[in-house]
């Protein structure tokens, strides 16, 4: 209780008291001494309370806005495994190195390239691919099918000569030539895992779409996967490369599989119109 306020009220005239006491207390004079607070103090306290309430409300509104909630949310941490991140990095690198639908590959070390003899034909492949290819040719022969190896490993320098020489001979621009042959540095042949195959019974179909009508192609479609081989450029392939029923690649071990499949989801770069 504020005794000073009480004594002052006792010594004041009614008009002086009424100026300091709110209307509600003027109607009940006995309550004035019990209040212990001046009307001005009550008014100031009321204003300060309102201001404080408004400030708190404004702060809550500011903090609760989506923009500020987003600021307070911790950044999401990646749950991707190191292998996934590495795969994404490889895919991006392959996309950056794609040229007219063809992908860039490293040239196989010479130490890993071996000669593969099939009848009178001789090509070069990586050892793992060569062994499986010879076994495939042998088993096909037992089924009455004569597979002929046309081309195997080619170095980047060899591919460069082949690509540009044929472009000049056929009066083709590089973009036109790339629709049927990989530019140097982008050929599967210099990986040592790719091989062009023909049918000894119908050599006229070699390196032609007509090869798909041969016994050799039909046998490969049904059996090549058993030896780790697959068709590189089927119809409507994702790289946008022309259909090549004669071009097969070995994916039968970890290195060969990673060579071709780490970038298997690459979107082709559109080839300029001829």
Commentary on this structure:
The chain is α+β, with helices and mostly antiparallel strands and 274 residues long. It is built from 12 helices and 6 strands. Strand 1 (113-118) and strand 2 (121-126) form a beta hairpin. Residues 1-36, 73-78, 84-96 and 266-274 have low confidence and may be disordered.
Secondary structure blueprint with pairings:
Blueprint: H1 3-10, H2 14-20, H3 23-26, H4 32-35, H5 39-64, H6 66-72, H7 82-97, E1 113-118, E2 121-126, H8 127-142, E3 147-151, H9 156-169, H10 174-177, E4 194-199, H11 215-223, E5 229-233, E6 244-250, H12 254-261
Helical content stands at: 40-55%
What is the 3D form? Answer: elongated
Q: Give me the Rg, rounded.
A: 43 Å
Number of DSSP helical runs: 12
Order of helices and strands: HHHHHHHEEHEHHEHEEH
Main beta-sheet strand count, sense and barrel state: 4 strands, antiparallel
The unreliable regions are 1-36, 73-78, 84-96, 266-274
Quote the beta fraction.
5-15%
Number of strands: 6
Structural class: alpha+beta
Enumerate the strands of the largest sheet in spatial order, edge to edge or round the barrel: 3-4-6-5
Span between termini: 101 Å
Mean pLDDT: 73
